[in-house]
Amino acid sequence: MTEILQIFTIRDLFDILAVALFIYGIIYFLVVTRGLQILQGLMLIGLFWLLAEVLQFNTLSWIFEKLWTVGLFSIVVIFQPEIRKALARISEQTKMLRIFTSEEMLIDKIVRACRFMSDRQIGALIVIERNTSLDNIVEGCVNIDAQVTVELLITIFYPMTPLHDGAVVIRNDRVVYASCVLPLSRHVELPKKYGTRHRAAIGITEESDAIAIVVSEETGEISVAKDGNLERNLDPEILRDILMKELGVKYEKD
After folding, report:
1. Residue 105 maps to which CATH number?
2. Residue 126 contacts residue 168 (beta carbons within 8 Å)
3. What single-letter DSSP state applies at residue 158?
4. CA-CA distance, 119 to 91, in Å (whole number)?
5. Among 11, 71, 101, 181, which is least packed, fewest CB within 10 Å?
């Protein structure tokens, strides 16, 4: 034991842990699928094969030997549904990584559009849908169903365009609605300086888990409403931080 400990390294420890995880994965796979019953059948066949070798039943041993050569192919065929599900699960995890990247790109587009509109005092109201569907909450919408781009957001809210008066609803990475009428907040204690956009932003977040971004037409001030509360006077980088946090995207600042 002392000699073993002297040559034992951290690499050996990780090697043992990797083998343990591999064995655990195989056992778990066998338990949650039909594999346990099939494994029992294979063990029974192996026992008969061993018995045939001991008793020198040459013909039977030859048959078992030939069966072993096609055993791997048979296992693949038998476990084909489970293998397909496992590969699909890996694909879903890869897709989740792509979703995170898509969300980060979405946030960047929204922040850039808000920066542009803030600098030019273009009023805007952008609602980001999360788990709660907004289909039955917003009214008077115009269906858009277009990929979110900086240019599209700016064009929608540019003064005198047909869709500028109202809210934009973003679902995933697409603008699904424009010119939406949102429910106004019912809180009577809100400051009178809050205009219709700010009250609508608070109202939609009181009735859903959405996030609403407001760009003031009078001052260019950027605000974010969530959970019925309004954070005002945000610069674009703080807006980015809030959206990253609320949408669950982790990133490192430069």
Report:
1. 3.40.1700.10
2. yes
3. S
4. 42
5. 11
Rounded to 10 degrees, what is the CA torsion of 253, 226, 145, 118?
A: -60
Closest CA to 163 of 116, 120, 204, 124: 124
How far is residue 153's CA from residue 178's CA, in Å, rounded to a whole number? 10
Collapsing DSSP to helix, strand or coil, 168 comes out as strand
Distance separating alpha carbons of residues 94 and 131, to the nearest angstrom: 21
Distance CA 204, CA 54 (A): 78
Looking at residue 211, what is its pLDDT? 95
Backbone angles phi, psi at 191, to 5 degrees: -55, 145
179 falls within a domain: yes
Query: Cα dist. 206→66, 201, 227 in Å?
Result: 70, 9, 6
**pLDDT tens by residue, 37-91:** 666 666 777 787 788 778 877 776 777 676 666 665 666 665 565 556 555 555 5
Task: Give pLDDT tens digits for 95-110.
Answer: 555 555 678 899 999 9
* 201 belongs to a structural domain: yes
In a domain, 82, yes or no: no
Note down the domain range covering 172: 93-246
Domain total for the chain?
1
